[in-house]
Amino acid sequence: MARTRSSRSFGDTARDIVRFGKEFPTSSPSRFAIVVFSGLILLFTALLSLPLASRDHTVTPLADALFTAVSTICVTGLSVVDMATHWSPFGMVVIFIGVNIGGLGVLTLASVLGLVISKRLGLRAKLIAAGDSNPLRAHGGVVNEGQTVRLGEVGQMLRTVAVSAFVIEVALMLLLYPSLVMAEVDPLVALWEAPFYAAMSFTNTGFTPNPGGVLPFADDYLVLIILMAGVFLGSIGFPVIYSLAKHVWHVKAWSLHSKLTLITTVLLFVLGAAVFLLLEFDNPRTFGSMDAGDTTFQAFFLSAMTRSGGFSVVPASDLNGSSQLVACMLMFVGGGSASTAGGIKVTTLAVLALAVFSEAKGRPSVQAFGRRIPSDVQRVALSVVAWGATIVAVATVAIEQITKAPVIDVLFDVISAFGTVGLSTGVTESLPDPAVYIMAAAIFMGRVGTVTLAAAVAATSRTQLYSLPVERPIVG
Questions:
Q1: Distance between CA 113 and CA 410 in Å, rounded?
Q2: How many CB atoms lie within 10 A of CB 99?
Q3: Where are the membrane-spanning stretches (predicted)?
């Protein structure tokens, strides 16, 4: 009898575990995404810790392996070791695979894993994937407002993600190979560097396989233009690529999200270049020794890379303090939602700017292109900005206290970590282990935390059948 009772208890436990495994992804896709990404980071930490992964066949210290794994899976590009000399070919292949996995997106990756297991795209997988196209869906509850990508279109969206990622990276690789060969890179070496650079540009990571990074190509505008194109395509986001592929040149049929993303991205790209040109034209360490054409091009390249690209021709430490602050602003904003870029996202900035404009005009609601932006979206945007500012502030104070480095350098690298950009003033490479872990946490929260926070805020939205008395505190 005791054996039967024990067997029944084990069976019930097993059924509970199976039920939890089925319900957990859709009940909380955002938490499921964190579990998946955390598991991937642990896996890649183990792989990068193998003696086979280092060039001298020694075990990489845990802090260095963990940081590189986080930077890889979160497509950041910051490194505490010299990428070109520390990692063996095996280690570089592991990193190449990791950035392509991480670049797909948190919830998209989770849905793909579910699709592989279930062999079909059911409602659970659709709910998970929908959270990557709109964080308001990531809490698993009802969303009443119109979506950038509707639930019925998620299957098409996933196909667009897979096809576009493959096609764009292959196209970049085919363009880069002859460009690298013309830049006097050995043809056999270029067979590896071309796909590596293609993946790093599209995923907005910024790792480089060769010593000196892109500095040897500082005067090769063809290579730099291809890298800029890859960064731009990766940063606009898969929902925008899906919208453009679906409606091609029918601008009126584009979603509001696509319009806001493209307009804000182009505006920041142009304004960023103009500001860098104004602030750096007389700096002998950066643009001061260049002619007008070179200065203008490098200003645009710097503007593009501070949006999450991470490739660097001009060392960040050589920039004027004013330019570093502007770069911090651009890195904090980042790229488009559900893209390979990080930051608070350009649509977050656009929504807040529209809210300020509407308030100044005395409009009762926030509007753009004939559409009303609901209050819950504005609330999520404000929460994401506050969340990002808090992460940056806490991490900067903690690392500054540990390292005693110049605060502007620490702030620059922390924002680069939070925005998954990859640019550095040199602080990150010399961090002690405690500061390395803090920086890794900033990367992880910057990549995954904004989606999770957006989901949590959206999940708290409840219908209220009564209203409380109004009282206005003094603001400003």
A1: 37
A2: 25
A3: 32-53, 90-117, 157-177, 221-244, 256-279, 329-357, 377-398, 434-459
The residues, ordered by sequence, that sit 6+ positions from 12 with a Cβ below 8 Å of its Cβ are none
Token couple for 162: 């897979």
Contact 443, 395 (CB under 8 A): no
Q: Is residue 422 helix, strand or coil?
A: coil
How far apart, in whole angstroms, are the C-alpha atoms of residue 190 and residue 234?
A: 22
- pLDDT for 451-460, tens place per residue? 565 555 555 5
Percent helix, strand, coil in the chain (nearest 5)? 70, 0, 30
SS (H, E, C) 101-159: HHHCCHHHHHHHHHHHHHCCCCHHHHHHHHHHHCHHHCCCCCCCCCCCCCHHHHHHHHH
Could you report the per-residue pLDDT of 51-82, keeping only the tens digit for each? 999 999 999 999 999 999 999 999 999 999 99
The residue type at 110: A
> Would you place residue 38 in the very low, low, confident or very high pLDDT band (cuts 50, 70, 90)?
confident
Q: Which amino acid would we find at residue 368?
A: A
Quickly count: other Cβ atoms within 10 Å of residue 212's Cβ: 10
Q: In this structure, what are the phi and psi dihedrals at residue 54, rounded to the nearest 5 degrees? A: -100, 150
Whose tokens are 């620490």? That residue is: 410
Length of the chain: 476
Handedness of CA 237, 161, 416, 285 (dihedral sign): negative
Q: Which two tokens stand for residue 36?
A: 């998946």
H-assigned helices in 281-320 = 292-304
> Do the beta carbons of residue 69 and residue 48 sit within 8 Å?
yes
CB 376 within 8 A of CB 463: no
Beta partners for residue 366, in sequence order: 373
How far is residue 6's CA from residue 429's CA, in Å, rounded to a whole number? Answer: 55
Residues contacting 370, CB < 8 A, separation 6+? none
> Is 131:155 a contact under the CB 8 Å cutoff?
no
The two three-digit tokens of residue 101, written as one number: 């996995």
Interatomic CA distance for residues 161 and 249, integer angstroms:
20
Two tokens at 448? 């995954």
- Cβ distance 443 to 418 under 8 Å? yes
Q: At what angle do helices 123-133 and 29-49 cross, to 10 degrees?
A: 80
Residue of higher predicted confidence among 12 and 417: 417
End-to-end C-alpha distance for the chain, whole angstroms: 73
Measure Cα distances from 386 to 115, 206, 232, 338, 359 in Å. Answer: 35, 27, 26, 20, 20
Domain residue spans in the chain? 32-459
- φ/ψ of residue 388, rounded to 5: -65, -45
Helix (H) / strand (E) containing 367? strand 366-368
> Which residue in this structure is represented by tokens 């490479």?
429
